[in-house]
Amino acid sequence: MVDITREIVTLKRQLGSRLCVMGHHYQHDSVVQHCDITGDSLELARRVADVQAEHIVFCGVWFMGESAALLAGPGQQVHLPNPDADCLMSRMSPASLARLVLEQLAEAGYPAVPLAYVNTDVALKAVVGEYGGAVCTSANAKTMLRWALRQGERVLFLPDRHLGDNTATQLGIDQTERHVLRVGAHGLVQAKNQPLNRRLLLWPGCCAIHARLSLEDVEGARAAYPGCRIVVHPECREEVVSCCDAAGSTSFLIKEAERVAAEVPGSTLVIGTENNLVKRLATRYAKQCRIVPLAHAICGNMAKVTEKRLWQALGAVVEGTATPVVVDENLRQPARLALTRMLTACGQ
Ligand code: SF4
């Protein structure tokens, strides 16, 4: 039987500095062990520009590979071990529909600056760039929403309504200033009956993995682990976030585990996010504290990237048969603009 782990080590050695393997924190440990760089969406996007390798093999879902290809330098190729690994949330705001809604808003006298979560495809990022907007991640959503509100009278945040909602709460934007749009196949549904004049319009999308975490899960954790601390990702629903002890990006959750392990040994930290990350943190800090997942939360698409798929992708790179991620040249400039506006606004 083939020892895939050893094969990958051999292939990586063969490619040497021509290769960089990047991976998202939600990847399984069997994949993460081979990554040269791991991070959340923001860290990985930021690091792509510094990578000199000719081949970037990106262990993550489709939009991440596309974003990497967008930021990659000339002559660099980005490969996805499994191009079928897609983020369902990233498909909830198709570019053509988002454009139509932006046009309808402008025609109705309520133009909006689009602010798109990085979990979107390049076509959507291009529309956002074209309409003067930017991209954001869960780590910088607060900074970027403040930025977007300075660019115009109102902001269209898409596609994750929960991240938009939670960020608005952090900025003190009242519920009466927010509205979750009703959108159908032909754009706004009954536009005249919607309060489109509000400062923050939220696209009705979400991450099914985080949105399914519930108040009952929080209550169950408090009962099972008296005195525990509960932290969740801001893609969770606002009612869940509001009854937890803190919420923040993937990087925040990792730092929180590190902090609790160092400062409150023997305590229990409950984390509401993708379970691969929670399990890794539980193993890392097992001697200092107990870390448990808030509830079952596995992203089936992230799980499509396996060690075997990574091995096959590296083999294809060595053989010269790998198919890199290709970004439509017409979309490159406006999409890059949306991403670079974020990097500039956040001083990165
Ligand atoms: S966890 Fe949610 S946002 Fe992240 S890739 Fe999976 S579906 Fe998309």
CATH T-level topology of the largest domain: Rossmann fold
Overall number of strands: 15
- Ligand names: iron/sulfur cluster
CATH second-level architecture of the largest domain:
3-Layer(aba) Sandwich
Inertia-based shape: globular
Going across the biggest sheet, name each strand in turn.
6-5-7-11-8
Number of domains: 3
Radius of gyration: 21 Å
**Count the helices. How many?**
15
Biggest beta sheet attributes: 5 strands, parallel
Q: N- to C-terminal separation?
A: 46 Å
In the CATH scheme, the class of the largest domain would be: Alpha Beta
The fourth-level CATH homologous superfamily of the largest domain is NadA-like
Q: What is the typical, i.e. mean, pLDDT?
A: 96
> What class would the helix/strand composition place it in?
alpha/beta
Q: Spans of 5+ residues with little confidence (pLDDT < 50)?
A: none
The share of residues in helices is 40-55%
Topology overview:
Blueprint: H1 4-15, E1 19-24, H2 29-32, E2 37-39, H3 41-48, E3 55-59, H4 62-71, E4 77-79, H5 95-107, E5 113-117, H6 122-130, E6 134-136, H7 141-151, E7 155-158, H8 161-170, E8 178-180, E9 183-184, E10 187-188, E11 200-202, H9 208-211, H10 215-224, E12 229-232, H11 238-242, E13 246-247, H12 250-263, E14 268-272, H13 275-284, E15 290-293, H14 307-319, H15 329-345
Parallel strand pairs: 1-2, 1-3, 3-4, 5-6, 5-7, 7-11, 8-11, 12-13, 12-14, 14-15
Antiparallel strand pairs: 9-10
Helix pairs in contact: 1-14, 3-4, 5-6, 6-15
Iron/sulfur cluster binds next to loops.
